[in-house]
Amino acid sequence: MDMCKIPQYPDMVDFSPEIRGEIEPVLQKLTDGISELTYSSLIIHKEKYNYRISKTRDGFILLFREKNGQKCFIPLNGIPESTARDLLAKNYKMIFVPQDMKERYVSFFAEQNFKLEANRDDADYVYLRTDLVDLKGKQFHKKKNHLNAFLKNYEAKVSIMDTGNKADADFVLEKWYGQNKNIESDYHTAKKAIKLFEELNLFGIIVYVNDAPVGFALGEYFCNGTMFCTHFEKGLNDINGIYQFLNWKLACMLDENTVYINREQDLGDEGMRQAKMTYRPVKFIEKYCTI
Fold first, then answer.
1. Can you spell out the DSSP letters for 137-184?
2. What is the pLDDT of residues 134-148, one digit of tens each?
3. Which of 9, 165, 251, 279 could bridge to 54 as Cys pair (CB 3.0-4.6 Å)?
4. Per-residue pLDDT, 3
5. Where are the domains of the chain?
6. Nearest to residue 74, comparing CAs of 106, 121, 42, 108?
7. 8-state DSSP, 49
8. Around 157, how many Cα atoms within 13 Å sit in the side-chain half-sphere?
9. Contact, 202 vs 40, CB < 8 A?
């Protein structure tokens, strides 16, 4: 009996838990470290981007999404030139192409009068876990001062997120949302991630001050455990230094075999870009798209 759930292109189905058995092994083999291309990330963002999935006769897996009216396709493990040509002719944009795949397809896209170009706003920031633990050197002097001030001013307790306390993370999220309603945020996807915490095998920590939850960080291991992606980090506005503490404490509590921490992209937000740069990324993960 054929247990395949992913149909053959041009047919496609919604990205859902029903296809997890087929898609997760493919995603786990991806070593590029693109933060969007994990099972957890795709599940929690599937309504926002209307993710759909298909596969070619050759076994290549394709993701489809829509953003601001633009239809896009993502080749997870490659794509036949005939399929790419068909999608480009239908005004689809190819996105989330890693460096090695870009090099394989650059000649083909040039023949089709397309270019593959990186968007700086979408580049993932990657840090050495040990840098975020040690905070050594002049470049981390301000971060260390903020952290030390937090440790001096608050008697904080930290718990690993689990079934029994994940409601505390939800409490922080709701309070944080109430303090930040005037900004565009990832509130809805964060809420879904907390709800599906166990199912998605996420890892998180919750910070308490005077026994009240004041912050949480939540993410997942990927790239065979060598990288951790921090998907969400929320702290209450009236707790000075909470974000410096969350960043440091999470890095301290990750598996020692984790080399890198991926803190996702800045989406072109200048304030976010400045904040991410102050932690001194060791590299960026570029994602190429057709233009």
1. SGGGHHHHHHHHHHHHH--EEEEE--TTTHHHHHHHHHHHHHH-TTS-
2. 999 999 999 999 999
3. 9
4. 55
5. 13-122, 124-264
6. 42
7. H
8. 8
9. yes
Start-end of H helices in the chain: 20-28, 39-44, 46-49, 81-89, 99-111, 129-134, 141-153, 166-179, 187-195, 242-253, 270-277
Three-class SS state of 272: helix
Residue 129 predicted with pLDDT over 80: yes
**Which residue from 195, 212, 86, 99 is spatially nearest to 155, judged by alpha carbons?**
212
Check: CATH 3.40.630.30 for 124-264? yes
pLDDT at 182: 79
Main-chain dihedrals φ then ψ at residue 241, nearest 5 degrees: 85, 5
Tens of pLDDT, residue by residue over 268-277, are 999 999 999 9
Residues 194/175/158/206 CA torsion (nearest 10 deg): 10
Q: Are 75 and 109 in contact (CB under 8 A)?
A: no
The pairing of strands 124-128 and 260-262 is antiparallel
- What is the number of alpha carbons within 13 Å of residue 277 lying toward its C-beta? 9
What's phi and psi for 100, nearest 5 deg? -65, -35
- Asked, colleague to colleague, whether 13-122 and 124-264 share their fold, the answer is yes
* Average pLDDT of the chain to the nearest whole number: 95
Parallel, antiparallel, or unpaired: how do β-strands 288-290 and 212-222 relate?
A: unpaired
State mean pLDDT over 156-181. Answer: 96
Residues 73 and 202: their CA atoms lie apart, in Å, by 26
- Please write the tens of the pLDDT for every residue from 52-104: 999 999 999 999 999 889 999 999 999 999 999 999 999 999 999 999 999 99
Q: What is the mean pLDDT of residues 210-221?
A: 98
